[in-house]
Amino acid sequence: MAHLLGGENLSISFGTRTVLDGVTVGLNEGDRIGVVGRNGDGKSTLMRLLAQRVAADDGRVTWRRGLNVGYLDQGDVLDGDLDVGRAIVGDRADYEWAANPRIREIMAGLVEDVDWHARVNSLSGGQRRRVALAKLLIEPHDVIMLDEPTNHLDVEGVAWLARHLKGRWRANEGAFLVVTHDRWFLDEVCTDTWEVHDGIVEPFEGGYAAYVLARAERDRMAAVVETKRQNLMKKELAWLRRGAPARTSKPKFRIEAANALIADVPEPRDAVALSKMATARLGKDVVDLERVTLAYGDPASSGYKPLLDNVTLRLAPGERVGVVGVNGAGKSTLLRLLSGDIEPTSGRVKRGKTVVTAVLSQDVRELDDVADLRVVEVIQREKQTFAVGGKELTAGQLVEQLGFTNQKQWTRVSELSGGERRRLQLLRLLVGEPNVLMLDEPTNDLDTDTLAAVEDVLDGWPGTLVVVSHDRYLLERVTDHQLALLGDGAVRALPGGVEQYLRLRAEQETAALASGAAAASGAAAAGTGTGDGGASAAAEGVRGATGSGASEAEKRQARKDLNRVERQLGKLGEQEAKLHQEMARVAEDYGRLGELNAQLQALLAEKEELELVWLEASEVLE
User: Which of 9, 98, 472, 615 is surrounded by the most beta carbons within 10 Å?
Assistant: First the structure.
């Protein structure tokens, strides 16, 4: 494999702290590398060095002549005053990029639902991330470096990006380097893993799962070596202390050997161990949403659309629910309804008398009020001592178990990194002993070690858990079932998990495309089809069919089939809603629940067959 770029003896320090110390790494054609490590250990710094965005204190970075490197920064670097189209393609005319199938595929996958003429500074965080990715990916880069590319992307966006990276080059062409905390993404796209820790970069073969196994074996071997070293050190210490106190004539080489053993004690790896706190008693009633509708705006306006429409949802004691959905579908709003932060437009929210709710928000703004306090002071304000696992701990001991060293405990909250703020707020919530825990994108800013520790806590969480996340690994690990918000105001159960959600989204998009094509065909026949030359028009021009060539009799039959199938789908939708309500009502009757689930699966299979008939009829009418 041809060498593309590399760094030799790279060292860089910030203040008195050495981040990378004599690191030598390289990228060859065909490399698909994921970079993992704790927050602050130098993952992004390593990538910026290799991308020649910053200069090393020592060492050098070399690129192959003519190498084209694309770099996605962790932060937002788009010009907010540009419109979306210009931010992505610059001054290129539509025909220049729309004629390229690779660029069309990227546009359709990332920014099809983004207004081409909107200003960048008016977009949501997820939309801005998609625009930045589209701008990067349409270029013919030899090497792509991505720093937290999945931040702000929904599950569907993460899945699309994984598919694109896997198919972007042939197996022995191109290369990419990705820093991410999304472990599913790492396993899906990476063939090698670099772990950055303690100033070095340690390579492992395979994705995240292979890396975890290899690191466990490495740590086991290190533990064996350390046990032997400790035993030898004890013998040497015993030897040094033997004999009369006044005797100082021990051989010098033995004293030096013993001192070397003692001095060779390795630094601890700042292991993160979140404490499992007590939980307030939870009664039979938790939180129920009964025929809840939540909407913003004027119901009389033409664009009025409820965010949640006639939703019934019941949370049971100890239930563990994951929530996925498209950006803007109302996932965070659903959490705010369940927690009581907002009230519905109509319907009823019923909460149990013993419910104690804690919410970890996306931006952790709850810590803004204590920004001037030290880490340990924040926890001391809650309590002075804590009962954990039958032991009594002080606030300092508790935050130390969370990974805050003695020095870090006295850092002001305002000076903490994003991951450290999230860790601190999670502990702050847990010490309040809630029995209903709601987490909104809890994986943002956390490294993989901290995520594993958080999951360990959530595995043993005895209360009710609701998690909104795009992290498939987390959802499948800590929740028992998932719900989907598809932007139509409904909340759907996902017996098939995240994979079922992705299938539903694909079907939704296919149906929308078919409907749009039929509408465009009808408009063209009436002589009213015009366009403004923007991205949507160009994409439609690329996708548009030239007609199926069906006879008028076939089209009449297709229209009849469409009407018949739509009526049947409407009835099946009502039956599905009733089944979900019944399943929620008998949640504790596992026998009845199994019967209802069997009925639901049969109904969904029938629905899928009807949707295929609908699509075939739509194609005849195109």
Answer: 472
